[in-house]
Each structure stands twice: as structure tokens, then as C-alpha cells.
């Protein structure tokens, strides 16, 4: 990721704002990849209007880790998965609630955290 950002900096027509956008997208992509690996759900399904439990849980995990690992506002996280900020907030709360009693969710969170560190 750093290599790509350094390459972008060498181009004089790339602004600092554009580098920030690329950095944010790459970070979201890394989180989506880690969630996909653990849940076995393709990250391309995250922005889709699919309501299968497995896909919704994967999407919620993405929101949880996107907020945990980045300082991005909920609107930016939501924009990445084609949702609004309220949906992202609900997803984060849902994962936190599930972690209090669901062992499978705790295992998934631990595996994703391990992949991202």
C-alpha cells in the first residue's frame, strides 16, 4: 500500500486529497478482503441489496472493522458499501451486541483482527 501511495506522489498532477481517497479505498479493500476470507462471502456482495443472513453479517463485520480500524466518518464507510450512516451505525451496534453472547461472532472478530494486524 505504501508503495502505491509513493508512486502516486511522484505524479505532480495528483493532489494530496486524491492520495487520501486512494489510501481510504485501499484500507477499506484490505478490511473487506479480511472479512471475506473469514466469512467466505465475496466482498463484492457487500454493496448489493442482498439480505441473506451470512451476507448481512459479513457486511456488518466490515462496518465494525472499518470504524474500528479507521477514523473515517460513518458516511464514508457507508458510501463504500452503498449504505447510509444510520445503517453503518446499526451494523456496528449489532456486532457489539452479538459479541456479548455469540461465540461464532467472537471467533470471526478474532480471526479478522488477526488478519488485519
Fold and architecture overview:
- The chain is 74% helix and 0% strand.
- The protein has one domain (2-116): Chromosomal Replication Initiator Protein Dnaa, Chain: A, CATH 1.10.1750.
- It is globular and about 45 Å long.
- The protein is built from six helices and no strands.
- It has 117 residues and is mainly α.
Shape: globular
In CATH, the architecture is Orthogonal Bundle
Beta fraction: under 5%
Task: Please name the CATH topology.
Answer: Chromosomal Replication Initiator Protein Dnaa, Chain: A
The pLDDT mean sits at 86
Total domain count? 1
Reported for the largest beta sheet, the result is: none
Short descriptors:
6 helices, Chromosomal Replication Initiator Protein Dnaa, Chain: A, globular, 74% helix, mainly alpha, 0% strand, 117 residues
Topology:
Layout: H1 2-10, H2 16-39, H3 53-69, H4 74-80, H5 85-99, H6 103-116
Concise overview:
With 117 residues, this protein is mostly helical.
